[in-house]
Amino acid sequence: MNIYGIVVLVTLSVTFLLRLVSNVLNIRSASSGLPEEFRDVYDEEAYTQAQRYLRSVTRFSMFSSTVDLAVLLVFWFVGGFGILDEWVRELGQSPLISGLAYIGVLVLFQWAVSLPFSIYRTFVIEQRFGFNKTLPSTFVADLLKTAVLGITLGAPVLAALLWFFENTGSYAWLLAWGGTTLFGLVLQYVAPTLIMPLFNTFNPLEEGELRSAIMSYARRVGFPLEGIYVIDGSRRSSRANAFFTGFGRHKRIALFDTLIDNHSTEELVAVLAHEIGHYKKKHILVSMVLNTLNMGVIFLLLSLFMHNRMLFDAFYVEETSVYASLVFFFLLYSPVEFLLSILLQMLSRRHEFQADHYAATTCPDGGALADALKKLSRSNLSNLTPHPLYVFLNYSHPPVLQRILRIREVLSS
Fold first, then answer.
1. For the chain, what is the domain count?
2. CA 203 to CA 252: how far, in whole Å?
3. Which of 37, 133, 230, 382 has a CA 20 to 30 Å removed from the CA of 17?
4. 3-state class (DSSP) for residue 244
């Protein structure tokens, strides 16, 4: 094994062990007792249930990640990448078709490995704790729809990337960067009307107290809305959520029916005020710019490692190719991606505090967001005392207790 193989192997091992340690510490941290702030929404039985859920999910995650790593290492060291490459070359197709076949088989293999875990998570763990509402027929339909979308949307993008790096020389990374950026923007624009309705039903929120309160708040803070919709999230889960879709003056609010059923009008307005805060503070734009720049760096580095002989030797592949370069580079890039994810999550947690501050200071009832967060933590069986290392590695949002205490500080100042 050469230096590239050692880097990938060490990175995969260190990342795995770091996440393993953080999971163990997180489970231990959860037994520190129910925080006083949550005693009005939790009783001891509910808190015990939340701890059981945390242990079940964490242990299952640790097991599934162990299997994923073991499968990857076995596939790697038995020469799976090289065997697959020889097979696609024997088909006698063009480099583009061979590339689609090579990466397609790897994606299919990864999907087959992950499918049993997805089924167990949904129909055993989530079912045991009362979250799952997904029927087997819905689960299968979602799989088929996702596969069709992956083929119809993913395959053309992959084909374009392969073609760029096969045929456009030193300009390939620029064309790939520009093409994927444009595709991402178009996808965000059409997803609310063409893709999301394939999985959920969007119905306009009926006239009434909630709609009037939302529209009144949006007008007061200068946030134009095209529509407010209710999603049938209860078809799949009892969990609650809300989000915005659309660009410019075509912004839409989407509320899960489970959120509406369990929260007051004041709390729902506060939740949406938090999301509006992200727009007002330019967080969405910042994230888009950072992700775009990151993608440009990735394609630039990929162009430098294209057809790297040592990289192919590390994965026991004899002949170089664009498609295999793509796969091997992303394995080599994994430590950078891991570090970037930590930095981006730190930024995201900061943004969440800022959006909370915006909601607390602009809502008629500034404390309603804290009340909503407590109810959401209870209904989702959230971990109220996560370990700092686990938060550092995994959380895009601050722990809910920190958010509530920060809101209390804002309201008291």
1. 1
2. 12
3. 382
4. strand
Residues belonging to the chain:
413
Q: In this predicted structure, what is the pLDDT of residue 247?
A: 63
| 277 within 8 A of 354, measured Cβ to Cβ | yes
Q: Which helix (H) or strand (E) holds 203?
A: strand 202-204
Highest mean pLDDT pick, 24-33, 73-82, 188-197: 73-82
Give burial (CB, 10 Å; 0-12/13-18/19+) of 378.
buried
Residue 321 has pLDDT above 80, yes or no: yes
CB-CB contact of 393 with 344 (8 Å)? no
> Is 378 within 8 Å of 296 (Cβ atoms)?
no
Q: Which residues are the active-site residues?
A: 275, 356
What gap in Å lies between CA 258 and CA 238, rounded to an integer?
6
Is residue 386 situated within a structural domain? Answer: no
**Residue 96 and residue 307: Cα distance in Å, rounded?**
15
Q: Centre a 10 Å sphere on the Cβ of residue 391 and count the other Cβ atoms it contains.
A: 19
Instruction: Tell me the pTM.
Output: 0.90
Residue 249 has pLDDT above 60, yes or no: no
Query: Distance between CA 384 and CA 144 in Å, rounded?
Result: 36
Q: Do 384 and 377 touch, CB atoms closer than 8 A?
A: yes
3-class DSSP state of 133: coil
Whether residue 387 is contained in a domain is answered as: no
Rounded to the nearest angstrom, the gap between the alpha carbon of residue 119 and the centroid of all alpha carbons in its chain is: 19
Cβ atoms of 159 and 96 closer than 8 Å: yes
Has residue 150 been placed in a domain?
A: no
pLDDT (0 to 100) of residue 364:
85
| Structural domain range at position 104 | 3-132+289-346
φ/ψ region of 374 (left if φ > 0, alpha if ψ in -120 to 50, else beta) reads alpha
Taking the alpha carbons at both ends of the chain, their separation in whole angstroms is: 60
Cα distances from 32 to residues 28, 103, 228, 404, in angstroms, run 8, 46, 41, 18
Q: Per the domain annotation, does 237 fall within a domain?
A: no
